[in-house]
Design brief:
Number of strands: 7
Strand content: 5-15%
Helix content: 25-40%
Oligomer: single chain
Strand order of the largest sheet: 4-5-3-2-6
Shape: globular
Radius of gyration: 20 Å
Length: about 300
């Protein structure tokens, strides 16, 4: 896929995710609740014009022949015979190791389950973006024990699932290249519409823009990895990439689920805040006598 194909949607989704976290974006979905699940917190965008998976089982998105997704069912057994390479990418803030180590271990544990459950021709890698040049990373052995390494590089679709570390520089450690950069509407238009975001000049402008506007926002790096890691992800040959937080589990369904279209692009909008999940939390809290918010058991 040509780099220019990514120009608009990658930058847009980076800014979109950041604005959502800031509370600037609000969901405008009016999908009703169902007895099964409420998927109003998932948005699908047909931004990617084509894909590398050449199979009739996963056609390219076409608004005239749109196939609705079912997030509660595995993919067709026929897709299990296709070579599909997936990556779950996360950002690990090494300077907050004590806060995130346990969360990462649970995510890692669920990833191991995925490896055992997924079809034999599928592969799911765990890719961790991390600040490499730190004493903390040098002094811990967690990633070494789990065989997560900078040396683990996917070279073939036949390679076994792997846990890979990728060097990433957090925004707070980046120096301004152009201290006089003016943040205005013209700059927004330049970044969104009129430039190749993979060009050296634009990359520098974008870096300065992010440092100036959201450097202190702690979750920005977890979204920026999708852009900074583009070259690594492309060279690794991934068909699908999911940008995830650390405090999650990969469910068994994920092991045998894939999009209906090979070029589908999804944006999650906070599933934990949906009525369905809030009601589940309330019920669970009631049964274990867990006191929280206004839902305390009386």
């Amino acid at each position: 896929m040509k780099r220019s194909k990514f120009k608009f949607f990658l930058l847009t989704i980076i800014l979109f995710n950041i604005f959502v976290h800031f509370g600037i974006e609000k969901s405008n979905s009016n999908q009703p609740e169902t007895n099964k699940f409420n998927y109003s917190y998932i948005e699908t965008y047909p931004w990617i014009p084509k894909c590398n998976l050449e199979t009739k089982l996963m056609p390219v998105y076409d608004s005239k022949r749109n196939l609705s997704n079912d997030y509660s069912s595995p993919s067709s057994d026929l897709t299990f015979e296709i070579r599909i390479i997936k990556a779950v990418i996360i950002y690990f803030p090494i300077d907050q190791y004590d806060s995130y180590a346990d969360e990462f271990l649970w995510l890692f544990r669920s990833w191991i389950e995925i490896i055992y459950l997924e079809p034999s021709k599928w592969r799911t890698d765990l890719v961790i973006f991390i600040h490499e040049n730190t004493d903390t990373l040098k002094n811990i052995d967690l990633f070494r024990k789990l065989n997560c390494s900078f040396k683990n590089l996917r070279k073939s679709k036949l390679d076994k699932p792997m846990c890979t570390l990728v060097s990433f520089t957090p925004l707070k450690f980046r120096n301004l290249i152009d201290p006089e950069l003016k943040i205005d509407q013209r700059l927004y238009n330049l970044l969104l519409y009129d430039s190749d975001i993979f060009g050296i000049k634009t990359t520098r402008i974008l870096s300065d823009f992010l440092v100036k506007t959201i450097q202190s926002y702690p979750n920005a790096d977890s979204v920026l990895i999708a852009l900074d890691g583009y070259d690594h992800l492309k060279k690794s040959g991934y068909d699908f990439v999911i940008r995830s937080d650390i405090d999650v589990f990969l469910t068994p369904l994920f092991a045998k689920w894939s999009p209906k279209h090979c070029n589908d692009f999804y944006v999650g909008k906070g599933a934990y805040s949906a009525h369905f999940n809030m009601n589940r939390l309330k019920r669970a809290g009631y049964h274990i006598n867990f006191l929280y918010g206004n839902h305390a058991k009386s």
